[in-house]
Amino acid sequence: MLEVDTILEHIGKFGRFQRITFALGCFCALLCGMPVVQDSFVMFNNPHRCAVPVCDPDSDADYDAEYLNYTVPADDEYTWSQCEKFFVVEPENASCIPEDFDEDKTVKCHKWVYDTSLFQSSTVSDFDLVCDRAYLSPLASTCYMAGMLVGSIVLGDISDRFGRKVALIISVLLIGVSGILSAVSPNIIMFLITRVFTGMGGVALFATVFILAVEFVGAEYRTFCGILIEIPFALGEATVGVLAMGIRDWRWLQAAITAPFFLCITYWWFMPESVRWLISKGRNAEAVKIIEKAAKVNKATLPKELLQIPDDKFEEDIAVISSKADLLNPQEKQRSKTVLDLLRTPNMRKRSINLFFCWAVCTLCYYGLSQNAGNLGGDIFLSFILTMLIEIPSYIFCWLVLDSLVRKNSFSFLTFLAFEIKFLFEIKFQVEWLMLTLSLVGKFGMSAAFAIIYVYSAEIFPTDYRSVGIGACSMFARVGGMLAGPIASLSEFYQSLPLLIFGLLSIISGLLVVFLPETVGCELPLNLEESEEFGKDQGVLYFTCWGQKNEVKESETQ
């Protein structure tokens, strides 16, 4: 039988072969970050006003024309009404003079003039997603998140049945084709449909390259690689801001974001298939070829007896790794289990619901802050790029201190840190640099909290139900992500409202998590029975099990 971990001891746990594979995975991870946050520019809400057919020419209408003083109501001293205009007394004989308009009577707009000084066009201006149709704009991010939910299930199953590389190519084609179709969409309905398929491909592509890049490295390098691969994802998000600085037309910007994905089709020839998946499917000869190639690239000598394949029927006793949780926390293959099992006992029910809420809030605030990056005032491009790049130091922070962090108190602290964005509400957008600073602090805290809650949840759920629990948390996270766009769009009514909602939810999440048991230094539960008893002797302010373990060791020594 081929023992992968034993083979890695001989060919190298993070040799040249693994580094090349990891670099290929990082390139795809960078690309995957772009379509997630593109709506900040593709769906940019250009300033707009009612078109006045009597006065405005059919094309190239002046956004700040002088006749607006008597044709369109003023919302305040500096802006014109976006949805209403004054009634024209006699349209047939009107010649755009003040006497042609009744300032005591207004009518709804049916056509608009957009300010193109910052962006030449966006989906909002092309499809008139304003006034009565404004509710359609935030649906783009909701459709993308819905696609992520469906894609993680459908393409995850394809990955397990037909292989990681098959899932990779399907994911690339989904993103590439749907992305190009988005760029040529004639209406908002087609654009929203393509966003669903882009989301399906995006989540599946990242999950697939994550597995291929990380699963063939030694166990001691997996946490490092698992966090490091998030850095190019953040760089990909920031790349959207750089592209938007030079491409101010949303269709060309959409094409620029999508086109590089087609390069990943070459991975069919360059990226090796998952060795563990091949072994689990009994395709040992193919697995041996990849192992021999890895040994050759790493310039390592591999004992032939390790590659001997028994003649009897191969027994499938290696768990197929199909998620981050399984990859970072390998476990034996389980019998069929459901999330309902986690809700049958009182302690696990409370803990599971608590974690479901925390995951939903983390995803909501993470994507909500990303989508709100352009509403902070000042330079929209600089604010956006910095908001994406702040994730990198948060990932490095987690990698350096994750193994020594007290989980629940660290999560609470980071969510409280994210709650600092509440003060933006008090500042009322008078100090732009302070607004941006606090928003970056909030994004740092939420990104780090997300990394911690992932590891913490895997430790809370018993070994028997770890994949089930993480899978359920991931589904609730997608629901939170689907709400991020609509909540971020509330800035149209009051600019501070989205940030205030994100802050309040994060503080609630930080308070609830203190009721979960601490896991650092503790012997983790293996089954539901042990989980029900786990943490009963801990209080809300319980910090670690290290002292408890030391006391046990001392008593055993005596």
UniProtKB/TrEMBL annotation:
Flavoprotein in keyword set: no
Domain Major facilitator superfamily (MFS) profile: 88-521
Entries under Gene3D superfamilies matching the protein: MFS general substrate transporter like domains
Keywords: Membrane, Transmembrane, Transmembrane helix
Listed InterPro entries: MFS_dom, MFS_sugar_transport-like, MFS_trans_sf, Sugar_transporter_CS
Xref: Pfam families: Sugar_tr
Principal location class: membrane
PROSITE patterns for the chain: MFS (PS50850), SUGAR_TRANSPORT_1 (PS00216)
CC annotations in GO: membrane
Segments traversing the membrane: 20-37, 135-155, 167-193, 199-217, 224-246, 252-270, 352-369, 381-402, 433-456, 468-487, 493-516
Record-level Gene Ontology MF annotations: transmembrane transporter activity
Membrane topology: Multi-pass membrane protein
Listed PANTHER family: SOLUTE CARRIER FAMILY 22 MEMBER
Protein name, as recorded: Major facilitator superfamily (MFS) profile domain-containing protein
Lineage of producing organism: Eukaryota, Metazoa, Ecdysozoa, Arthropoda, Crustacea
